[in-house]
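By convention, the token line describes the chain's fold. To illustrate:
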Amino acid sequence: MTIDQAVAAGPVRRSERALAPDLARGAMLLFIALANAANFAFKGQPGLETHPHGLARVVNLGLATFVDSRAYPVFAVMFGYGLVQLARRNPDRVLLRRNGLLVAFGAVHATLLYFGDFLGAYGIVGIVATLFLVRRGDRFHKVVLWLWGIQTVYALIFAGIALANAHGGTAGIVNSPNPSLAAPTYLGSMLDRLAEWPVHTATVLPFIVIVWLGIWAARRRVLEEPAAHRTLLRRTAVVSLGISTLGALPYALICAGLVHAGSGTVEAMAQVHGVTGEYGGPGYVALFGLVALKLGGRTPRLLEPVVALGQRSLSGYLLQSLCWVALFSPWALHLGGTWAAAVCAAVVWAASALAAKMLADRGSRGPAETVLRKFAYR
């Protein structure tokens, strides 16, 4: 069957779902929670303690190495993967309607809760991908491998130049403020978000290259058939996570206060950190593919809540933003600091996973998924 043959209109049935994508989405929502809760707690980005001491250094090191700029690319890969899965079952008009609804979801999410919304950008990229990428042939999609190859060479050269020009100093990280997060009233935060969201959305649209890689992988059923792609998954996990981790370390050490550098070096290491963060997407996805292969496609009881959350990731994502607004806004509980962010992120993620498991046991979808599917498949 080719991707051009939409055989059964509607969403992917539960019986047809592969373990790896749902496991990846559910687990990586913890990383999203850690990143966004910290953003709220420090009222800006990167959302890290600027003068860490003790265990706060460990938290800064861990977040900068494995989470920041490395979690959202996972969802970009999985978004591209999901586009192909949907295209196998639906005509383009359904995909276009669904992605248009994501833009609407993003606009509402950004206006009411969080300027750092990704749903609107996913919707825009999904529309472009549906019109120009999804239905193309294999030869066309090989272009994305060349793009990633060129980008890898660029990232390595850029990192080498930055390290060669590094110099010591007394500069450290500074949280760039987001007015909506520090607004003293809810109405004021809404007005700020109306200005911040379009700018944020425009800055993340280039992740279409990451989405395209997910499209390429889905056309080969890499996650549905991990045993047939064991070598590819292993190489992708090692190389991509290697680039992601090594590229993050210089900046992470600065964030942890273990290395002191000049302001120019801090800025350069932050850029290297961002460029290499994209490799966390395919790296983590490949890692979860290998985990699913190890599990034989079966979901252990302990992981059932995580998988259930992955199947309801849109609802889980929106619930997180609602919690951050209530917990960290100056006009609400106004929590702040490293530990408040880390503990709240872990508790909210765990609670959302348990809630997702309860919905799964009842055979119910998440509320956001229900609304999206109702209008997308009308």
Q: What stands out?
A: The longest strand covers residues 44-45. The chain is about 70% helix and 0% strand. The mean pLDDT is 94. Strands lie at 44-45, 176-177.
